[in-house]
Specification:
Strand order of the largest sheet: 2-1-3
Radius of gyration: 15 Å
Number of domains: 1
Largest sheet: 3 strands, antiparallel
């Protein structure tokens, strides 16, 4: 049976930075690498809120991206 070994995690903050000429939102992202693998979703969300407080644009989305090595 194959298993996944967590190699790295990234935290991605998506900000809404305005509207384009069609009135659709424009999004900008900021990615933080080397996030602790043990971090819980609540911890990451609280961190994202703290970081977003330092930015001028409103926070739209918080995403976590994990990379796994699949081993047999």
């Amino acid at each position: 049976m194959a298993q996944g070994l967590l190699m790295e995690s990234r935290l991605r903050l998506v900000f809404e930075s305005g509207l384009n000429e069609k009135g659709e939102p424009i999004f900008k992202t900021k990615t933080y690498n080397n996030i602790k693998k043990e971090a819980t979703p609540d911890q990451l969300y609280q961190t994202a809120l703290a970081l977003a407080g330092l930015c001028a644009d409103p926070l739209s989305t918080v995403e976590r991206s994990d990379s796994l090595d699949i081993i047999a």
